[in-house]
């Protein structure tokens, strides 16, 4: 009789968690002691009310009639705190299982199939704090021995959602952030004896002929300690430039004085077919036009006429310079050259003179290191030193300094490796970012780089 009754439209099974309800409850049903005690309280409460009354609508004191659907239900909470502490983030709602009187209970009492889906919305946190960002360390400045590595350090700040920018360093310093170091020491294998080379000289050949190029080869320590069998060549053959060079002249300038003293001069340049001025050594000296003419009178007797000095024959230090001295004059305004004996009445000017160019400081380089990568784009390094004689110096021409770093690529990589910097930030909820499809947003694509890349 009792098992077939319903009290206040509440079945006995209502107090059992939803996940444990069965068509019937037997002695073999598995129920925790706490839930069994709840079952018994409800059972005896209703049976007691039944035997003390002849009516079927007896209610427990303080309870209204409650339907089965309203005994336990899902309740959507307010949104959780913003996922980002600054700028934009995501706030997510969540559902909790509550009893008819509003008390939160275990989720197993509610029907999982009717649980509401969480909702998400953007939220804004406080102003973002600045931070230091660093680049990767450079290669060691020396291929052997002790050197230095460098990196760039900048202050960054998120100014607006999706807008991360570098800012003045003062912002990071004012926030009390310790500046990361920009330089650190690095050490490679000890520098043993090695050959050091100067740059190749110009080819000695004229156009269309063969010549030689030379360079200095020296040992970084005592010559006896360097391997002579590995010594690089100090001379090699070369072919002169194409025969497209020619001399060009400017207009004559004004006369500087009277006959015998007066001179007219003009500029002489060696040019290629494109009209570009090149070294005078690239044009034939035998065909070089005169740069200086006598002047001062229509008829000017023979006298010594000095041409301009040629360049010093030494690239540095002491050398000799030469010039052409001619016995020449004018007849009816026309330039004429005469035998030297016509001018012997006066002393012939010097045709040679000592000259001195900058101190002999020369750039020397070591051989290139191996490429830093076995595939793809890498770099190779070498040491560049300035020597004056046998001593390291500072007098080398900086404009002609050989490069110390060079790009290299041994072979293409089979597949492009992922960027080293592409990783998920620990502060980002990347599972949620993927779920609400935020990888198209600049900020979240960067914060969850690895997850977004795998998803795509």
Domain module count: 7
Structural class: mainly beta
Evaluate the radius of gyration: 47 Å
Number of strands: 28
Terminal residue distance: 65 Å
Q: Kindly report the average pLDDT value.
A: 78
Which regions are unreliable across 5 or more consecutive residues at pLDDT < 50? 1-16, 18-63
Main sheet? 3 strands, antiparallel
Strand order of the largest sheet: 5-7-8
Percentage of residues in helical conformation? 10-25%
Strand content: 25-35%
| Discrete helix count | 6
Shape: elongated
Describe this structure in words.
11% of the residues lie in helices and 28% in strands. It is mostly beta strands. It has seven domains: 2-51; 68-124; 131-187, no CATH class; 195-239, no CATH class; 246-356, no CATH class; 361-408, TSP-1 type 1 repeat (Single Sheet), CATH 2.20.100; 419-456. The strands form twelve sheets. Strands 5-7-8 form a three-stranded antiparallel β-sheet. The longest helix has 19 residues, at 33-51. The chain is elongated. InterPro entries: ADAMTS_ADAMTS-like (IPR050439), PLAC (IPR010909), TSP1_rpt (IPR000884), TSP1_rpt_sf (IPR036383). It holds the Pfam family PLAC. It is found in: Secreted. This is ATL2 protein.
């Amino acid at each position: 009789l009792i098992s077939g009754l319903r009290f206040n439209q509440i079945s006995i099974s209502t107090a059992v968690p939803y996940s444990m309800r069965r068509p019937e409850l037997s002695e073999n049903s598995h129920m925790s002691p706490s839930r069994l005690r709840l079952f018994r309280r409800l059972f005896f409460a209703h049976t007691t009310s039944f035997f003390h009354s002849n009516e079927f609508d007896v209610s427990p004191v303080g309870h209204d009639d409650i339907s089965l659907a309203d005994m336990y239900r899902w309740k959507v909470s307010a949104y959780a705190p913003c996922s980002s502490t600054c700028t934009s983030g995501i706030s997510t709602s969540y559902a909790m299982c509550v009893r008819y009187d509003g008390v939160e209970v275990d989720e197993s009492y509610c029907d999982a199939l009717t649980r509401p889906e969480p909702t998400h919305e953007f939220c804004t946190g406080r102003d973002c704090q600045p931070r230091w960002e660093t680049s990767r360390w450079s290669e060691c400045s020396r291929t052997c021995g002790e050197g230095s590595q460098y990196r760039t350090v900048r202050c960054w700040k998120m100014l607006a959602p999706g807008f991360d920018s570098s800012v003045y360093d003062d912002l990071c310093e004012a926030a009390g952030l310790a500046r990361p170091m920009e330089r650190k020491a690095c050490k490679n294998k000890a520098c043993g004896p090695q050959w050091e080379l100067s740059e190749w000289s110009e080819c000695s050949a004229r156009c269309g002929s063969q010549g030689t190029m030379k360079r200095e080869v020296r040992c970084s320590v005592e010559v006896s300690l360097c391997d002579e069998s590995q010594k690089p060549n100090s001379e090699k053959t070369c072919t002169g430039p194409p025969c497209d060079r020619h001399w060009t002249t400017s207009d004559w300038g004004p006369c500087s004085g009277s006959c015998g003293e007066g001179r007219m001069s003009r500029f002489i340049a060696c040019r290629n077919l494109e009209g570009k001025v090149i070294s005078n050594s690239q044009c034939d000296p035998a065909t070089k036009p005169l740069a200086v003419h006598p002047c001062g009178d229509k008829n000017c007797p023979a006298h010594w006429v000095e041409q301009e000095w040629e360049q010093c024959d030494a690239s540095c230090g002491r050398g000799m310079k030469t010039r052409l001295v001619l016995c020449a004059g004018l007849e009816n305004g026309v330039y004429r050259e005469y035998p030297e004996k016509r001018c012997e009445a006066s002393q012939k000017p010097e045709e040679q003179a000592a000259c001195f160019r900058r101190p002999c400081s020369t750039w020397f380089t070591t051989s290139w290191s191996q490429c830093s990568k076995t595939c793809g784009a890498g770099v190779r390094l070498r040491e560049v030193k300035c020597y004056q004689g046998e001593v390291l110096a500072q007098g080398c021409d900086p404009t002609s300094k050989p490069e110390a770093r060079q790009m290299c690529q041994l072979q293409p990589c089979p597949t492009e490796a992922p960027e080293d910097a592409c990783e998920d930030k620990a502060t980002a909820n990347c599972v949620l970012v993927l779920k609400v499809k935020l990888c198209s947003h600049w900020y979240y694509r960067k914060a969850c780089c690895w997850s977004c890349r795998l998803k795509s």
